[in-house]
Specification:
single chain, about 90 residues, mainly alpha, about 85% helix, elongated
């Protein structure tokens, strides 16, 4: 296994991690900003007010994007396992 192969594997793993995590992180970020604006406008500073909507939104996003995330992970894993003989050199 050469250095370029290791770099390529790391790059692919990083890309898959970034792409599969983005939907949940994006939803959490958007809901967090909206709740923060609401809290600033009403001057209600309650910790659970920001936590509960984010948990619900991430749960819903997980249900919606779950099949897509699983499919991406399955494709990556299948490609990785099928290319293992190429890395044995």
């Amino acid at each position: 296994m050469t250095e370029s192969m290791v770099i390529q594997l790391g790059q692919q793993a990083f890309t898959v991690t970034l792409v599969t995590g983005m939907p949940l992180l994006g939803v959490s970020l958007i809901v967090g900003v909206l709740v923060s604006v609401l809290q600033a406008a009403t001057q209600i500073q309650e910790a659970t007010l920001s936590f509960v909507p984010k948990v619900l939104a991430v749960g819903i996003a997980g249900a919606l994007f779950g099949p897509w995330v699983i499919n991406n992970l399955m494709v990556y894993t299948t490609n990785l396992l099928s290319s293992l003989p190429n890395y044995a050199h």
